[in-house]
Amino acid sequence: MTDFPVFDGHNDLILRLLRGDVTADAVAAGLPDGHIDKPRAKAGGFGGGMFAIFVPSPDDKAVRHDEMRNPPYDIALPTQVSEAEATDWTERGFDAMDNLEAAGAIRICRTASDVEAALPADEMAAVTHIEGAEAVDREFAKLNQWYDRGLRSLGPVWSRDTVWGHGVPFRYPSDPDTGPGLTDAGKALIRECNRLKILVDLSHLNGKGFEDVARITDAPLVATHSNAWAVCPHSRNLTDRQLAVIRDSDGMVGINFASAFLRPDGRMESEFELDIMLRHFDHLVSSLGEDRVGLGSDFDGALVPDHIEDCAGLPNLLTALRSHGVDDGLMTKITHGNWLRVLRKTWGQ
Ligand code: ZN
Fold first, then answer.
1. SS3 (DSSP) at 46
2. pLDDT digit string, tens, across residues 126-181
3. If you measure from the C-alpha of residue 50 to the centroid of ligand 1, how many angstroms do you get, rounded to a whole number?
4. Pairing of strands 73-74, 171-172
5. Separation of 256 CA from ligand 1 center, angstroms?
6. What is the rounded distance in angstroms from the CA atom of residue 289 to the CA atom of residue 157?
7. Which pLDDT does position 1 carry in this prediction?
8. Are the CB atoms for 119 and 5 separated by under 8 Å?
């Protein structure tokens, strides 16, 4: 499957480095656990993707995952994170990206051509993404500095409120219309991202926030790691109406591997057949068209299906797609072609 290197819309490997769980050298050499390291990326055809810098909430993810094992659930939004704390964490995130590059694990990409060149390379192609913009100041000074350090994608909120807007809670069953959208500051942030040509990620926005971005932005609409609400009615997934808006903007959606956003029953359990992913795939392709669907694994941030397990298991998904009738042309688009097209368009290259 090496003809089809995967460019992936979202992973949380950087969080493991920031928590001190793993070192950059160990990512290059191979890790005993987690979803991503260089040897497994090579084995699985994981060519790279968007690497998220994410400031964790003090709440315990294990507790959240426990609750999500028993639908229905409605997880309260965690408390806000301060700009000072987020800035410190985010600066360290950029350092972690540099360390991974110095260790030979990744190649930091600033243009779509960088991504295209790095996909078949030994190192993973890495686009720097900030998930939740708590660290960004209202004058956008840091945003501009971080652009210079390689920042090319940003989500105004994670599932948490910020000065920019309101995140969507993890709620099942629920549609994404869970509260107010962007603040005036948030709307200004979208305009500044447009000016800098930073991709604005819609994943984790609620319904109103999504509409606000759609109204303001001049770029294709992108949800880097989200699924079809029609298949799994989770607040994190995209309704048919939202998919139509994304299609009309010529944007795209990366399929999230998180079990609770895939399974029609919303359960955070990883034992299920990949047919469920194919149902999301079919729905997204029929809603968006073949040019607007890619992958957005959420590796190292989510409980992924046992049949994939980690990035070395990507060939299992590609095999399932192949048996589902996906030909070479469509496989090229899903694995990386569509991402390259949308990144090129968003970044003005
Ligand atoms: Zn996320």
1. strand
2. 999 999 999 999 999 999 999 999 999 999 999 999 999 999 999 999 999 999 99
3. 11
4. antiparallel
5. 9
6. 27
7. 46
8. yes
Cα distance between residue 137 and residue 311, in whole Å? 35
Is 278 within the bounds of a domain? yes
Look-up: residue for tokens 């496989």? 331
The number of C-alpha atoms within 13 Å of 123 and in the hemisphere containing its C-beta is: 22
Give the end-to-end CA distance of the chain in Å, rounded to a whole number.
Answer: 28
Question: How far, in Å, is the centroid of ligand 1 from the Cα of 295?
Answer: 13
Q: What is the Cα 232 distance to its own chain's centre?
A: 18
Q: Name the domain count of the chain.
A: 1
The greatest distance separating any two alpha carbons of the chain, rounded to the nearest whole angstrom, comes to 51
Q: If DSSP codes are grouped into helix, strand and coil, which group holds residue 137?
A: coil
For residue 345, the CA-to-ligand 1 centroid distance in Å is 23
* Type of residue found at 156: P
Average confidence (pLDDT) over 300-311: 98
The CATH number linked to 258 is 3.20.20.140
Q: How many CB atoms within 10 Å of residue 67?
A: 13
**Rounded-to-integer distance, Cα 82 and Cα 88, Å:** 10
Ligand 1 centre distance from Cα of residue 225 (Å): 7
Could you tell me the residue range of the domain that residue 172 belongs to? 6-347
Domain membership of residue 1 (yes or no) is: no
In a domain, 37, yes or no: yes
**Total-model pTM:** 0.98
Separation of CA 131 and ligand 1 centre (Å): 7
Q: Which residue is listed with tokens 């989510």?
A: 302
Please give the average per-residue pLDDT across 290-295, as a whole number. 99
